[in-house]
Amino acid sequence: MDADAGTDSDYDAERLRLIREVRQRLESLSRAGVETMPRSPERAPVPRPVVAEAAVAAPRPVVEVKVEAPAPAAPTPPPVEARPEPSSKPKATPTTRPKPSPASVPQQPIAAVGSLFGAVEFKSPYVEPADRAEALAVLAAEVAGCVRCPSLAASRTQTVFADGSPTARLMFIGEAPGADEDRLGVPFVGKAGQLLTDMITKGMGLRREDVYIANILKCRPPENRDPTPQESSNCFPYLERQIEIVRPEYLCLLGRVAAGTLLNTALSMGRLRGRWHRVFGIPAVATYHPAYLLRTPAAKKDAWEDLQMLMRAMGLVTPKKKG
Questions:
Q1: Which domains does the chain have, with CATH numbers?
Q2: Could you give the count of Cα atoms lying within 13 Å of 128 in the half-sphere of its Cβ?
Q3: Model confidence over 60-115: pLDDT tens digits?
Q4: What is the Cα Rg of the chain in Å?
Q5: What is the pLDDT of residues 214-233, one digit of tens each?
Q6: In what order do the strands lie in the sheet with 276-279?
């Protein structure tokens, strides 16, 4: 009896796991704009072990039940929502934003895939795209009244929440607001912000309003110093909730502080850039902060290589230079 009980338990556990992953995949397809799925060929039901009553008293072998899962089209774990689908994926084109081609997914292995389909690792429920602006507005109001860091709350002009689309495919995350951001309440609006805008528009061919931009801290540290570990810890739940609401397909971590905080590492940017990471299951690229690029123009070449890696994964084409 023990052998059969173990077989049934394994079968049920495998079945529940596949059901969860199929639900996650359907949610991802719905967000990407896919409304219909083609009917796949009929398959014979998976047999379960059948044992005659007369054989109950006799020792019975364990029957191995194999559940066939769909194989991904690409050899590497696909990124969230922009990943290539199994062979039964429809050829539909989303109406809201372009879908990457299978050849555009990251070609370097991405570690820590949470499930068969690389499901994102969020604790909060999924927010429908139509409701994301309102959810972010509620969170922004909460951030505006935050006093978790008393010294920052006392010195700030205002909090700096975010900028861009609540349904963006790509989210940029920087370190903390500067003087211009503290004055205007918008991230990346100073000289470093202008360079980031050029990277987005001239380099990637996107509009700034099509991406989402946020920082680790929502308040400006005095004299633009680095955030303390306690300040980053106090503010991190707000950033985590922003990511959960927007659910971008890709993240771009700008600078050592942002990369170190989100990747929980002390490695240098030189060691982190040029390869893929995962943050909450989302494919992420780390690159130099625009402020660093202004001080070190020679690093712009490396930053451009990182952006191109993102562009290939997103299915973006380098814009042609005018004139």
A1: 1-70 (no CATH), 129-314 (3.40.470.10)
A2: 2
A3: 444 443 444 444 444 444 444 444 443 444 444 444 444 444 333 344 433 333 33
A4: 24
A5: 999 999 999 999 999 999 99
A6: 163-164, 212-215, 170-174, 250-254, 282-287, 276-279
